[in-house]
Each structure stands twice: as structure tokens, then as C-alpha cells.
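ok here's the first one, seq then C-alpha cells
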Amino acid sequence: MLQGLKSLIAVLVLALVIFRLAKPIAMHFTSQADFSRRRNVWIALTAIAFLSPSFWLFVALAIPVLIWARRRDSNPVALYLLLLHVVPQGLVPIPVVGINELIDLDNYRLLSFCILIPVALRLRRAQNSTPIARLQAMDYFLLAFGALQVIFYVRPDLPNQVMLPDSLTNVLRRGFLFLVDAYAAYFVVSRGCAKREHIVDAMATFCLACAIMAAVAMLETARHWLLYADIPLRWTGFYNRAYLERGGVLRAQASAGHALALGYLLAIGFGFWLYLQTQVASKRLRIAVTGLLWLGLVAAYSRGPWIGAVAIYLVFMSIGRGGVTRIFKAAAAIAVVLVAVSFSPLGDRIFRVLPFFGGSVNVETVTYRQQLAARSWELIQEHPFFGDQFVYLHMEDLRQGEGIIDLVNIYAEIALFYGLVGLFFFVGFILLSCMRAYRAVRQAALSDPDFSRLGASLVACIVGTLLMFFDASFMLGYEKMFYVLAGLGAAYAALATRPVASPESACASGLT
């Protein structure tokens, strides 16, 4: 308990400093009332989480706070993004008489039940007056991918090849959880962000959450101390992701649940900041926030997100007027930064884990990914259309020392279990969002440069996400932000054809 109290004090001190310093920036995008309320809710839930001996006590105290905040917030999507990683994931089963468990509950699903689903129901009731509430092509792609997840039961990767049987209860559970975990997030973000201000507010609030995680990450690496590790350990009895090291350096996790997930979230936060900083006059503040996010990325010590963040920057700079000139300037800026970093104390830490710079630290993980890619392609060719839900049986030689077969390639993971049909629906879903947003960016380049830059940020983050999916698993922040980014892209594209939301639709959604 004493360790948890020390961690709480450290987190709150860092968070209060970030909230205080970020307030002048946030006021460009968020109302005073929303900022203060969200800050207080974040602090309250953080304190409750660190002090609660039981997950169920946290749930009992968090539910009324979340409902109260959602009802008063002018943009529940922004509230959701701020609280998405207020605590790390820790799945706790809901026991029910007659069956082993109903569903597992964690912070993600708690936010879905308390924020997303009530807003989604309100939006559905307003379907007649809000055309975007009706099903679109992206909805059909996502629902088709969800149908495959419901129909095909993927056996979990358990030791000794234990094959758990499927049942009607499991089928119903999978369908329900797909709506709760995936479709609710996409539906609310794509329909709830009915104005440009909603999208910008959501991006700024997520960036604020990333700034807090970056500050925590820096302290974790500097002090070799994972501040949030005690929470899932106390609530679930185990925490198998604690204290990952690379080259003798602790890989920070903050509240993201894993160093790789933290790096991805900060890369997306950086992508959002590329647009948001254009609204900030102070050059010092622009540099400070950029530096904070990148120091957090370094603390996460994850190669994939580093490459993803650079790709996001290059894509953002290449979109719009003068793209060719801008991309050369961006490449030159990256080269200058790399040279400067190479002479800094961080230089050796960064370059020794990058194989294309001659780094040799953890090079075995690169070899493992190459073996995984080769084996996955062999197995996909055996069951190309709908995959093989027993594929773990054929990958035993790839089982790691941790006792798991680590499918660190989301495309391979989906194609193995759901085939190329599943991969088509999965990738097609977000590519539709990306292409529509890109089309809107090009159309607005001359008439509304600011709106064009906003879309360029979203397109860059989607492209960066698709790149980072080659080196990740579909879980934690990767999974949640996949649906959020697709929703933001869809909302942005809708604004290009409907620049001003009607008062009736805005009031019906409960977002004004």
C-alpha cells in the first residue's frame, strides 16, 4: 500500500504540472469548463485507482463520476480519449451464477458502458434527423469483420495445447463484446464529432493525455520504477508485462499497459500535435510539447513507434500545397536531428537498437519477426480465404521463453485466423476512412488551408498506424485507436460535404 501511495504522489505531481502548463494551449481548443471538469475527473479516477484494494471498489466509485462527467461534457469523445488510459488494462471476470463468467471487465469497457454506449443510443434515436447516423460503407466493412470474429472461434494460446470448446454462450458473448469494444467506439466518434471543433477538441485532449504519459514515462525510465504496475497486480493478482528491459534500460509503460503500446500512443499524439501546434503562437511551447512527446517515445524504447512517428511527420509534410518542397525540408530536418542526437547522451541508447544503423541490441527480436512472417505466409496459403482458428498448433516452434507465440504483426494475425477475407474487411475499413479524408484534404487545400492541415494530420496518423501494425499485436492502445482514428477520418470527410452541422443534429447528439 505504501508503494502505491508513493506512486500516486509521483503521478499526481507530474500530472498537475502538465495540466497547469498545458492549460494555456488547451484553451485554444477546449472550453474552460470542459478542461477543468475533465482534469478533475482524471485526477479523481487516478486517486481512486491507486487507493482501491479491489477493482470492484474502483468500478463502484468510478461509474457515478463517469456518468456525471459525460452528461455535462460538450464533447464526450474528448472525455473518452482523456480517460482511455487513466489506468492500465486489467481484465477482471464478472461472475454469474450458472456459468463461469459473464464477460471480463476493464477500464476500456467501463468507459464504453458509461460514455460511448449512452451517446451511441442517443445518436441512434436521432437517426432520422442525422443522415450520418445511418449505416455507411465503412460500417458494413467493420460489421463484416465483426461477423467473422463471431462466427469463427479462435482458441486462445494456452500452454500444453489446451483446446477450449466453443458454445452458443461464447458466440453471443463475442457478438456483444464486438459491439462494446469496437463498433461503439467507431460509431460514436464518426457520428459524435459533428463539428470541426469537436474533432480538434478530441485531438487536443488526447494529446494532453499523451503529454501526461510522456512525463510519467521519463520518470519511469530515469528511476527504473513502473508507477502503474501495482494497480493491475493488486486487482488481478498478476502483471505479466512488468519491467521489460532493452539493453539494460527499463522500457517505460506509464498507464498504457505495455512499452510498445505507449510508444504507439505517443506517436499518434505527436501526429495530432503537428496540426495543433499551428494554432499556438509561442515557438517555445511548440518546441516544448514536441520535445516532451519525443522524450516519452525514447523512454518507451520501442523501435516500431519511432519509425511510425517519423513516417507520420513525413506524410503530414508531404500532403498539401508545396508537398515536394516540404518533404525535402522535412527530410533535412530529420537528418539534422539525427546528427544532433548522435552527439547527445541519448545517441548511443537510440542507435544501438536500430539494426539499419548497425545496432545489435535485441537483434533476436528482428530475427523472430522474420521467422514469424515466413511461417505465417506458409500457413495463410494453406487456408487463404477464412484462415485456420487452430493455427497455434502449427506454430509451436515459435513459442518464446515467456510461454507464448507472439504474433507481433497485426496483418499476419488477422490473415492467419480470419483469412484474406477478414484482412480485406479489416484493412478496407480504415482505408476507406483514409481515402475519404485525403480527398477532403485535397479539396480544402485552397479554400480552407486550416481544415486541410487538420485532415492531413488524421491521414498521416492513419498511414503511420498502418505502418506500425507490421510490428505490433491488435490489443491495448493499438486496437482502441484503430477504431478512433477511423471514426475521426469518417467524421472529417463528412464535414467536407457538410461544413456546418445543423443545430437540430447537434442538439440531438447531446454534444452542444
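and now the second one, same deal
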Amino acid sequence: MPTELVRTLVSRGVEARPGGHNQQLTVMFTDLAGYTSISERLGDRVVPVLAEYLEAVSAAVLGRDGTIDKFIGDGVMAFWGAPVPNERHALDACAAALECQRLLASQRASADRCGGTALRMRIGINTGRMLVGNIGSNERLSYTVIGDPVNVASRLEPLGKLYGVDIIIGEETRTAAGDNIIVRRLDRVAVYGRIGGLTIYELLGVTECAGFVTPEWARTYEAGLAAYENRRWLEAIKLFEATAAIRRVVDRPSELLIERCRFCLADPPPSDWIPISMLESKG
């Protein structure tokens, strides 16, 4: 258990015995992209590379009053709102995620200059009522969070690979953070283990950064998504193509939605069609 977490638990009188309570919190999962190939290529030399990444994520989390839950191989699990109460838990989690990506961008620039290993990461964030506390047995405890919102967050992280984006947040996080964040509404999906649809968003920025507003390409994409959901597939295709043209880079979400629109045009769905993408695997 991290030293700072132990100090906080002791200072708040949290006893080292099993127990917990339900609370509205925000949880984050991170993962290194392509870590398996990096590890195979570097062998033992991967240790300092991994340490650099974990240090960057830890600094970003702690800098925004987060709690580092655990390191899971090349991944990090962290949460906000406990053990110290924090009404801004969703916003702070988003800000920490953006800081993680900023630090990794700096690392890549340095690696390109010095011939090092450039790192990329994916992040999933979700908010909801979850059980927080000392989970385990009398012999071995872990101060952690469990529950459906945690499971959803762990499913959102690997979706970054499918959609080609760095940070995906759930609809509860988007609601909790409100106008303090800039997002692109990506899609509505049914993640593994859940029947109902979940709106997912790409996190782009926070409004506390002066001059940062929703970019034109994001608004164009969302207009295309609305057209797709309302069965105006030809219009949607044009808007998704315009999104890529405005960005002047490959926009993977637009490519995915264009494929869906063309499929719908070729084989129109029934009148009771619900535009939810079914994701069969865990990621």
C-alpha cells in the first residue's frame, strides 16, 4: 500500500480491518499501448522504461488528489473521492488523465531525440456509486474500490484501441464534470457484462485551460453521430468525411461510423433499431 495512502488512512482513523461503504467516486484505469512487444524487444531493459511511465502516471494522479489503488503489470488503477472527500472527483480525474497524456507526449519527444522507447497509453474513466474500503481478509487487506462502475471503467480503457483515442470517459463522469471539461461524444455502446447502452466520450481538455473550446471537427463529428442515430446515413457519411478533412489526420471513430452507415444503407435495420454498438469481448 502506498506510504501516503497509509498516512491518510491513519490520520482519518480508518482501522486495518475488513469493511467499507458505498460512495460516489471516480475511478481510472491506464494501460501502455503495445507493452507486450516493447517488453519482448527490451527484455530486462524494460524495467526503467516501465518505471518512467509509472512515475509519470503516479505524479499526475497524486498531483490531482487521487488515490493510487494498485499497479497491474503495465497498468495503473486509481480513484478520486476517498479516503479524503472530494466533490470535484470527476473533474480531478479528468485533469489527471490529461496530465498523464501530456507527460507521455513529453516522454515521446525526448525518446525521439535520444533514441529511446516512445510510450503511448490508453485511459478509461468512470463515475458512480461503488464500495470503497478495506477489502480482503484479516490477514491481507487492500484499500480499494469495487462495483459495477469500476468494472465499466476497466472496459472503457481498451476501447481506446478500437476507436483510436487516448482517453475515454463514461456518461456519469461527463455529467459529474459538466461544463468543466471538453469532450467529443463518441458512440453508444454495450460493454461486456452490461446489457444496457452506455454513452462514451473522448476527453479532449478542461475549460480551466484558457482559450480551450470544443474544436470544429468534434462538433462536426457529433452532428454526424446524430444523423446516424436518426437514420440519415448519407448525411452522416458526409459529416464524418468532413471531420477527417478538418482534422487533416485519420480519424478512426469517423471511419468506424462510415462503415456502419454503409452497412445500414446496404441492409437497412428494422424500424425498432437502436443505435448501440455491441462489444462482445472484454477488450
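notes on #2: Residues 215-274 form one domain. The chain has two domains: 21-207, 215-274.
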